[in-house]
From TrEMBL:
UniProt source species: Shewanella piezotolerans (strain WP3 / JCM 13877)
Highest taxon, organism lineage: Bacteria
InterPro entries documented for this protein: DUF2066
Name recorded for this polypeptide: DUF2066 domain-containing protein
Pfam family, one: DUF2066
Length: 376
């Protein structure tokens, strides 16, 4: 990548971060999502009744960001809590943004996660896939590929849904390099090889190929979500999820596209409590400094797949951890694979493993996955 390309991509990311301060922190592949316990809700005035409605709406948005699935809002435990949303609030304040009044509401994150766990709902941690969106939109009969610098309604709608859902999104620069590799027909015709190759420079985990076009009084949309790389043993790209339909507006079409991606990610990376006492061991090698050990332990403690973390042994520069899990080992390792700070250097299988409590013979003899901590 040339200096100019790197500079342009950096500007694109900075523009995005300025729109949603402290929401996403991008690293090479994947993103950490912050402010998962906060919501910014528009209000017409500072009236008490409107404030109460906004606090309830804010809690809905926070629950949606932490579970990733719309169905969570209909769970009886969640419905009950929504009726008393202010009880979970920690603070609120009014903000005037571009002449519009908003109320910023913060909620107790630990109580929120406890609510979701008790309800048996999936919890989506802050480490999330980064998704590159290749979208052909049709405006007044003209088809264009949506680029990062676009000021269209479609682009603004994606920014809003990315924030509401906690789904980190990137858009292509459509500079000379992109234009030479990708055309409108590549996206509309689902020529995945071309789009996958063009996507590599953006270091995203997944890419979406989508279209939105007017069909009379409605808008027709199609979307397919693909992984960054071919799956093992596969000779062609297969969509992780696809969806098509008609929406009343461009904004609703964007909601539907983003929701489809979010629901897939929840199925892969959000972890519900299995109710079982599942445990495992993992090992980190080349841990030469206490700072590294502290960083690794802090990282493990924030993963949504992990219930408890304890150092089992330290031998030279190798550290073994005992982990209590909400889900299974496959959930854990799939989640850890997202983080660019970690490299897997072992290929142990979790198939046919009998889970047991720490200290049992089965658990003690179970092979462990080995990782290397690359750090920041």
């Amino acid at each position: 990548m040339s200096f100019v390309e790197a500079y342009n991509m950096l500007k694109a990311v900075c523009r995005y971060l300025m729109m949603f301060p402290l929401l996403f922190c991008f690293s090479a592949i994947s993103a950490e999502v912050y402010n998962l316990d906060e919501s910014l809700v528009p209000v017409d005035s500072r009236a008490k009744n409107l404030r109460s409605q906004a606090i309830k709406q804010g809690l809905k948005e926070v629950i949606l960001k932490n579970t990733g699935t719309q169905s969570a809002l209909t769970h009886p435990d969640v419905v009950k809590q929504l009726a008393n949303a202010s009880a979970m609030m920690t603070q609120y304040g009014y903000q005037d943004l571009d002449g519009k009044l908003f109320i910023k509401v913060s909620f107790d994150h630990k109580r929120l996660i406890s609510l979701l766990r008790q309800a048996g709902l999936p919890v989506w941690g802050k480490q999330r896939p980064l998704t590159l969106v290749w979208l052909v939109e049709e405006i007044e009969g003209e088809r264009k590929i949506l680029n990062d610098a676009s000021t269209s309604v479609t682009r603004t709608s994606f920014d809003t849904q990315s924030s509401n859902r906690g789904v980190p999104l990137l858009f292509p620069l459509m500079d000379l390099d992109d234009s030479m590799q990708i055309g409108i027909n590549d996206i509309r015709g689902q020529f995945t090889d071309n789009v996958a190759n063009a996507s590599l420079r953006y270091q995203a985990n997944y890419f979406i190929m989508a279209t939105i076009s007017p069909q009379g009084e409605v808008f027709s949309y199609k979307m397919s979500l693909y992984p960054r790389e071919l799956s093992a043993g596969s000779s062609q790209y297969n969509p992780s999820t696809s969806q098509s339909g008609e929406s009343a507006s461009v904004e609703q079409a964007v909601v539907d596209i983003t929701a489809a991606a979010s629901e897939y990610y929840v199925s892969q990376y959000a972890i519900a409590d299995s109710g079982e006492k599942l445990t495992t061991k993992i090992t980190f090698t080349d841990v030469s400094k206490m700072k590294q050990l502290v960083e690794i332990e802090k990282y493990l403690n924030q993963l949504s797949a992990i219930k408890t973390v304890a150092v089992a042994s330290i031998e030279g520069m190798t550290v073994e951890f005992n982990l209590g899990l909400f889900g299974n080992e496959e959930d854990l390792h799939r989640l850890m694979k997202l983080d660019p700070r970690i490299e897997s250097i072992g290929n142990t299988s979790s198939n046919n493993i009998e889970y047991a409590s720490f200290g049992s013979e089965n658990n003690a003899n179970k092979p462990t996955q080995i990782y290397y901590w690359k750090g920041q």
